[in-house]
Design goal:
By secondary structure, the chain is an alpha/beta fold. Helices cover 42% and strands 19% of the residues. It is built from 14 helices and 12 strands. The strands form 2 sheets. The chain has an 8-stranded mixed β-sheet, with helices on both faces. β9 and β10 (146-149) form a beta hairpin. The longest helix is centred in the C-terminal third of the chain and has 20 residues, at 225-244. It is globular, with a radius of gyration of 19 Å.
């Protein structure tokens, strides 16, 4: 661990996911810079640290924070690993911004919604790009320097971070990233990055559009029969698109893609099994969560809906398999 803690880390986009990851890494003793465009947020972290709250408690981490204009100082201390945690639509300019400040063997890890690795690879190189899924991490920024997590940390019962190479091989650097992230929550290396990416996209696309359009939270979505069935329909559409693209999906909320599709098709036994499993899954969610799209709409900001429901619909058109529910959302 001493060798890993000598690495220079950077988190680009220190909002919900990035703030939580960066703050926990700082608490664990890593040399990590939290970089963000929200000036008040950065100033608060500089002066008071970043408060991280989850169902197990609340802590304040003293973390290094940087405004965008301060990124230039990294020329004196180049970055070994840069975690991009921004919205998907901010991927390209963040990759371009950090590229000149990567060490010779430095690389970028996408910890984002949707599939952005190819966009990053086009800028820094495929050999310097990894992906990481933060599975149902459920975090939000509630004010400058404050990040709250609705779900109980996964720990030994659920693996939150899944780190993978674009080519699917297990490499020492992917193992290093997984070890670093284990200071934040449970982590592993996956040889199925795209199957993991699509499993998360299924989860996002069955929540984001509904939560954003209605203003309800995830508990209400699951408890109401109409929104629950609508979400299951979304899941079935997304899974079929992913499979048509040739991806082998990982379980979604610990349940198989086949079960979700059967439930989406209205098979009574499958629907009952899935609803029971979904209810058990929600036991990890101690506080209501409105999803990133819901939060962005309340704050009057651009959402990522084009990169969740919109992405599924676009890929469905590409393979000749329409996803009408996703498209309408």
């Amino acid at each position: 661990m001493a060798d890993l803690k000598s690495l220079r880390l950077a988190v680009l986009g220190a909002g919900a996911v990035g703030g939580y990851i960066g703050g926990q890494l700082a608490r664990a003793g890593y040399r990590v810079a939290l970089i963000d465009s929200w000036a008040e947020h950065v100033d608060h972290i500089k002066a008071h640290g970043i408060r991280l709250t989850d169902p197990l408690g609340s802590v304040v981490a003293n973390a290094e924070a940087m405004h965008l204009h301060e990124v230039q100082t990294l020329i004196r201390d180049p970055v070994d690993i840069a975690f991009i945690c921004t919205k998907s639509y901010d991927t390209a300019w963040n990759a371009k911004m950090i590229a000149p400040y990567l060490r010779e063997n430095g690389f970028v890890v996408s910890v984002q919604n949707s599939l952005n690795e190819h966009e990053i690879a086009a800028i820094v190189g495929a050999d310097r790009t990894l992906g990481c899924i933060a599975s149902t991490i459920s975090v939000s920024v509630t004010g400058p320097g404050v990040v709250e997590r609705a779900r109980t940390p996964g720990g030994e019962s659920y693996t939150v971070f899944r780190v993978g190479e674009m080519h699917g091989r297990v490499t020492p650097r992917a193992q290093r990233v997984a070890e670093i992230l284990s200071s934040v929550d449970s982590s592993k290396v996956t040889s199925n990055l795209w199957g993991e990416r699509w499993a998360k996209l299924v989860t996002n696309s069955m929540h984001h559009g509904i939560l954003g359009a209605t203003g309800i939270h995830d508990h209400q979505l699951m408890q109401d029969e109409q929104t629950r069935l609508l979400a299951i329909q979304c899941a079935g559409e997304a899974i079929r698109v992913a499979q048509a693209l040739g991806h082998d999906l990982e379980p979604i909320l610990r349940m198989s893609p086949a079960l979700w599709c059967a439930a989406a098709d209205g098979q009574v036994a499958a629907l009952a099994e899935l609803e029971a499993g979904w209810k058990k899954w929600m036991e990890r969610s101690k506080e209501p969560h409105y999803g990133s799209v819901g939060h962005d709409l309340v704050k009057g900001r651009r959402t990522e809906i084009d990169y969740t429901c919109g992405y599924v619909a676009a890929m469905g058109e590409q393979v000749g398999l329409p996803a009408p529910t996703q498209a309408r959302l």
